[in-house]
Amino acid sequence: MKQYAYISAIALASIAFSTNAQEVVNADSTGFKFTDVKVAKSTPVTNQNKSGTCWCFSANTFLENEILKATGNKVNLSEMFVVYKCYHDKAVRYIRTDGQIHFEQGGSHLDVPYIWQRYGMMPEESYKGLEYGEKKHDHYEMTAGLIGYIDAIKNRQKTKYSTAWLKGIDGILDAYLGEIPETFIVDGKEYTPETYAQSLGINMNDYVAITSFTHHPFNTTFSLEVADNWIWGQYHNVKMEEMKAIVDNAIKNGYTLAWAADVSEKGWKWKNGVALMPAEKSADTLEGTELARWTALSDKDREKERYDFHGYVPEITVTQEMRQEWFDNHETTDDHGMVIVGSAVDQDGNRYYKVQNSWDTNQVYKGFIYVSEAYFLAKTLNITVNKNAIPAKIRKNLGL
Question: Which of 72, 168, 189, 252 has its CA 20 to 30 A from that of 28?
Fold first, then answer.
């Protein structure tokens, strides 16, 4: 991961697009055979394509799963309704802070409840956000236009803003995503975004974000210091083992979780559908011809061999101190949002989390990846979960 100081949302979208364009590998060639142990019901895999809006795709899927669990109803929520409203509010905050927040495609899972509570929600069928001649999302041009415009406004020479500049932001969004309708019809009934959200049977106050770092006290909340947390959302801070216990308890009880993680590690093998944190080989653990071969390798070749795995290899033992160090020196960065839908084991009994992505289905596990527990512990930025899925003792400690 050290070759990346920061991966932008656009760069991640490019990774997803180029990866999905490749030929799908055969599962038998990866060296892994996974068996799902417990998997919650989830809505279908989506495709963010060339947009840096993984945070919205994953959070929407997570909330769709919550609706499915609570009511039995399958819904497809509009990502671009949320994206439009976020850009609008982000522009206001950008100007109010003299450009001191991150005005880019990225965001956090907490952005979706933020929008839901303020503006409501829409179904995909009523607002697809594809009004610019594309069949799939492609936000490069729109983003360039928005950033150029908002920076021109910020850098104006006048001492007073006009009353028109925000309409310019909305005008760009209208041109690309389409105007948001005031009302729409679903199953023969007329809704507004507010009344549609109210009809879906879930409460945004039930959802909390969890993280695990030592630069703030455990069992307190703080605003996670990442650029895309533009709403300054609050995260409950727990010990690393407790964060894992929350995930395990949620899966056990049929819940899914929104997951924000660093996916720029060499052990993240999206095409092969697996993510590991391989341990470094040491001459102390080798002997004979294997030792002679290893000592003859260059550092570059040793690094390459470490991540050229076909089947499970020993992984690092992750500690709380490691997590903090990697976050502080930007070896762990806020890269990507996905959904943890279940647990699994490989042929040797090693445990994994089954993760749903938003990079389409043209991949070995049709849009899912199996993430080792070590990778989860090492590279998780945060999770968002229904507070009712948190173990009782942890929930009490957090005041929930």
Answer: 252
Q: Which of 318, 337, 335 is nearest to 384 (CA)?
A: 337
Sequence-distant (≥ 6) Cβ neighbours of residue 188 within 8 angstroms: none
Amino acid at 119: Y
Q: Are 393 and 379 in contact (CB under 8 A)?
A: no
Residue 392 three-state SS: helix
**How many angstroms separate the most distant Cα atoms in the chain?**
77
Using alpha carbons only, give the angle 39, 43, 44 rounded to the nearest 5 degrees. 105
Please report the DSSP string for 67-126 in residue order: HHHHH-----B-HHHHHHHHHHHHHHHHHHTTT-S--SS---TTHHHHHHHHH---BGGG
List the structure tokens of 208. 């909390």
Q: Is the pTM of this model over 0.70?
A: yes
Quote the pLDDT of residue 13.
Answer: 43
Q: How many CB atoms lie within 10 A of CB 312?
A: 18
Q: Could you give the C-alpha distances from 301 to 14, 177, 311, in angstroms and in order?
A: 27, 47, 19
Q: Which residue has the tokens 């415009």?
A: 149
Report the b/e string of 355-385 with b at 16+ CB within 10 A. Answer: bbbbbbeebbbebbbbbbbbbbbbbbbbbbb
Helix or strand run (H / E) with residue 208: strand 207-211
In the predicted model, what is the mean pLDDT of residues 209-224?
A: 98
* Alpha-carbon distances of 42 from 78, 127, 340, 355, 373, rounded to whole Å: 16, 21, 10, 11, 21
Distance CA 338, CA 54 (A): 7
For 197, other C-beta atoms within 10 Å of its C-beta total 19
Question: Is residue 240 within 8 Å of residue 320, measured between CB atoms?
Answer: yes
pLDDT in tens, 4-60: 333 344 444 444 443 334 456 677 789 999 999 999 999 999 999 999 999 999 999
Torsion of CA 137, 43, 275, 237, to 10 degrees: 100
Percentage of the residues of the chain whose pLDDT score is greater than 70: 88
Kindly give the interhelix angle for 79-96 and 165-177, rounded to the nearest 10 degrees. 160
> 366: helix, coil or strand?
coil
Coil vs helix vs strand at 60: helix
